[in-house]
Amino acid sequence: MADTGLEAFRFSISWSRLIPNGRGSVNLKGLQYYNDFIDRLISHGIQPHITLHHDDLPQILEDEYGGWLSRQSVKDFVAYAGVCFREFGDRVLHWTTFNEANVFTLGGYDVAILPPLRCSYPFGQINCTKGDSTSEPYIVAHHLLLAHASTVRLYHKKYKATQQGFVGINVFAYWFEPYANTTEDMKAAERAQDFYVGWFLDPLVNGDYPEIMKKNAGNRIPNFTKLESERVKGSFDFIGINHYCTVGIKDNPISLEMETRDNMADIAATLICQTQPRNGTLIDTPRVEYLHAYIGAVLEAIRNGSNTLGYFTWSFFDLFEMLDGYKSGYGLYYVDLDDKELTRYPKLSAHWYAGFLKGKNMSGIVENIDAEEAFTSAY
Question: Taking the model in full, what pTM does it have?
Answer without folding.
Answer: 0.94
